[in-house]
Structure formats: structure tokens, C-alpha cells
Design goal:
CATH architecture of the largest domain: Orthogonal Bundle
CATH superfamily of the largest domain: Intergrase catalytic core
Number of strands: 7
Distance between the termini: 66 Å
Number of helices: 14
Structural class: mainly alpha
Order of helices and strands: EEHHHHHHHHEEEHHEEHHHH
Largest sheet: 3 strands, antiparallel
CATH topology of the largest domain: hpI Integrase, Chain A
Helix content: 40-55%
């Protein structure tokens, strides 16, 4: 019997005796450490994936018997053979260093000498206001509200997916973002054009919540120790997902069969469909709408510090990339091509 962790991975025998391979015990320790530090489930999956790859690359040798040279060899393979992006390269390195520092208790000088790839500063893709309007007009109706919040409130995809009913304040037209990137909370505006659809979404979520309670379905996932402090929170309407999935699924961390929030893949497919339908030639993702939100606010004269706060950026230098787009030296300038005699034009 074999299992595959990811398409293309080497299969791992399920029945391999644990004493023959230290990796399962090691990965269990790493998983426990990741959860102890309250890292997200996505980080959990990514870190474990790269540590498995690292161990397999070196023929299932225990990491305690390896060090800097073996890590460098693995990272070089990723960069030169599999040609991963610099961000992926950094994630793999972070995963392995977490293993050595947090699980194996190793913090040696060679760790600081491992080369980090340089990350290029890319100019974000930004839609014009007309393109945003065309995109929202083309998105499937069931995803219009979700996409309108990505643009109208500047939410990250995961932040929008994990909104709870209690996070929406209709009286003050605010949305509370809980445990955003870096586990930081913030408050963003509730776009007035989205209010009616948002109220209808709350009603839909309430209907699914009532159906689950009637069927005896376990409550939704709640953060960390809240399930012990407030045992009924998971089954309360306030904590129910604003964007619940249509069907029940099994929680991969706890094995509980319950209702999850909507999945990022469904949003990505909806945006891809809307982009083609609207005739937009740019590559549009959920983050493109966030980029457009920031750029359009700055273009309207909103102070950059306020935009930084709305985006949840720790450093204003991260927000500055949007001012670079607006103040680009190319903006408003005529190309010398335009000054050539008319006969040169084709």
C-alpha cells in the first residue's frame, strides 16, 4: 500500500516499520512543534513537504547525520535542476532550518552561511477601474460578493475565506480581520455597494448553520484553545463561516467531519473564468484585486499611512511599491516614437 504526498513525489510505503526509518517519528515531532508555535495549516503542510523532499533526496538519511553541505546540495538541485522560483527556494530553506533549530535543537554557524537566493522586486499587476468593473460584471453571481470584498476592502484571499459572521459590523460599515498575515488583527471598510449582497450571504450562512445544528454536525473550527474556554463557540452562529462550503468535509488536522469555509481553488477558477469573459489580457488573481484596491486609493489621494493600515503591512516600504506605479517616470511622458515625422508611422 502506497501513499503520495504530492503529484510526482516518490511513493512512501505505508507499511514500512517505524524502526527502519526515523523520518515518520521525526516528522511527527516537527508537526507538533509547528502547532506549538501556532503556525498556520498551510505552513504546516509546506514545511513538512520540504523536509520530506530533503530526506528523500539524501536517500532517507537522518538529518542529524547531515549538515550544511547536504542542505546546499539539495538547494542547488532545486535551483538548477527543478528550477524553482526564489520564493520557493526560500520556503524550502526555511523549512529545513526550522527542522534543525526547532526540532533537532541544532543552531550551528554553518546555518547562517547558507546562501539565500535574491528575490526580485516585481511590479504588481494592477487593473484599471474599468477593468475591475468589467471583471466584477463577468464573475459568476455566487462569487460576486467575495470578489467585491477582495477589491472593495483590500482583503487577502485567506482573510476573506476565513471571515466569520461576527466579523461584519453593518451599523458602522466595518469588517474585522482576525489573525491576518502575521497573526495581526485590523479593521477595513465595508463597501456600500456590497452591503445588500453581504446581508444575503449572512442569511445563507445562517441557513446552513441551522441545518447543521439540526443534523447534529460538529461545530466549525475555532482558533486554538477557544474550544476549551468557550465549548459552545464552535456551534454558535457568531463563529460560523461567512462563506461556508456547500458540503461537509473532513478536517485534515483533527479528522472531524464538519463544515469548512469555501476553498481557494473555487475562487481562483471563478476569477479565471471572469477574466476571460471580460476580455482582460492581464493575469488576474485574488491578489490582483488587492493590488488594485491599494493603487486606486493612493490615486484618489488617500494618505499612504492609512493605506498601509488598511492593507495590514508591517512596514510602509511594502506599501511604497504602489506609489512607484503611480509616480513611474514613464507615466504621462510621450515616447520619442510619437515625435517622428508622420511617414515613420506604420
Amino acid at each position: 500500500m502506497y501513499r503520495h504526498n504530492r503529484e510526482g513525489d516518490t511513493p512512501i510505503p505505508e507499511s514500512r516499520p517505524r524502526h527502519q526509518n526515523p523520518a515518520p517519528r521525526l516528522l511527527d515531532q516537527m508537526r507538533d512543534r509547528i502547532r506549538y508555535k501556532h503556525y498556520s495549516y498551510r505552513t504546516d503542510k509546506a514545511y513538512l513537504f520540504w523536509v520530506r523532499r530533503f530526506i528523500r533526496f539524501h536517500g532517507l538519511k537522518h538529518p542529524k547525520t547531515m549538515g550544511g553541505p547536504e542542505i546546499e546540495r539539495f538547494l542547488t538541485h532545486l535551483a538548477t535542476v527543478t528550477k524553482v522560483a526564489p520564493s520557493t527556494h526560500k520556503q524550502a530553506l526555511a523549512s529545513i532550518l526550522f527542522l534543525y533549530r526547532e526540532v533537532l535543537g541544532v543552531d550551528l554557524p554553518w546555518m547562517g552561511e547558507i546562501g539565500r537566493p535574491r528575490t526580485s522586486q516585481h511590479v504588481p499587476v494592477v487593473l484599471s477601474r474599468d477593468e475591475v468593473a468589467a471583471l466584477l460584471a463577468s464573475v459568476p453571481p455566487e462569487f460576486w460578493l467575495f470578489c467585491s470584498l477582495l477589491y472593495g476592502s483590500g482583503l487577502r484571499l485567506q482573510e476573506c475565506l476565513t471571515l466569520r459572521i461576527k466579523d461584519v459590523d453593518f451599523s458602522r460599515r466595518l469588517i474585522y480581520v482576525r489573525h491576518g498575515k502575521g497573526s495581526k488583527d485590523r479593521i477595513v471598510m465595508l463597501p456600500a455597494p456590497s452591503e445588500a449582497a453581504l446581508r444575503a450571504q449572512v442569511d445563507l450562512s445562517r441557513h446552513l448553520w441551522a441545518r447543521d445544528r439540526g443534523a447534529g454536525v460538529p461545530g466549525v473550527e475555532v482558533p486554538w484553545a477557544l474550544a476549551r474556554k468557550l465549548p459552545r463557540a464552535a456551534e454558535s452562529l457568531n463563529w460560523h463561516w461567512l462563506f461556508p462550503a456547500a458540503t461537509l468535509s473532513t478536517d485534515p488536522q483533527t479528522g472531524i467531519h464538519r463544515r469548512h469555509h469555501q476553498y481557494p481553488q473555487t475562487v481562483a477558477r471563478a476569477l479565471s473564468f471572469a477574466t476571460r469573459r471580460a476580455g482582460i489580457e492581464k493575469r488576474v488573481t485574488a491578489h490582483t484585486l488587492r493590488h488594485s484596491f491599494a493603487t486606486h486609493l493612493l490615486d484618489s489621494g488617500v494618505d499612504i499611512r492609512r493605506v498601509q493600515e488598511l492593507l495590514g503591512h508591517a512596514d510602509v516600504s511594502t506599501t511604497m511599491i504602489y506609489t512607484h506605479i503611480l509616480s513611474s517616470s514613464a507615466a504621462g511622458l510621450r515616447s520619442p516614437m510619437e515625435l517622428l515625422p508622420g511617414s515613420a508611422a506604420r
